[in-house]
Amino acid sequence: RRTGQKDHMFGIRDGSTANGYQKRGRKPGRRTDFMNDPDVIAKRQKALARMEAAE
Fold it and tell me: In this structure, is residue 1 part of a structural domain?
């Protein structure tokens, strides 16, 4: 039996999924992978470039 499996072999839902439990994708709260976001990185580089220009 695979752990974390949501249904039986033939698509019969078992355990908590049959009772309507949904697994949460992302935990609530502050994002921990903030710096890995491409648009965040782009924003940061723009800000750094502006700081360079200001000096």
Answer: no
CA–CA dist 10, 15 (Å, integer): 14
Instruction: Express each pLDDT in 39-48 by its tens digit.
Output: 888 888 888 8
Overall pTM > 0.85: no
Look at residue 38 and tell me if it is in a domain. Answer: yes
CB neighbour list of residue 40: distance below 8 Å, 6 or more residues apart? 34
Instruction: For residue 6, report the phi and psi dihedrals to the nearest 5 degrees.
Output: -95, -15
Structure tokens at 8: 């039986």
Task: Answer yes or no: is 4 within a domain.
Answer: no
Tokens read off for 23: 């697994």
Domain total in the chain:
1
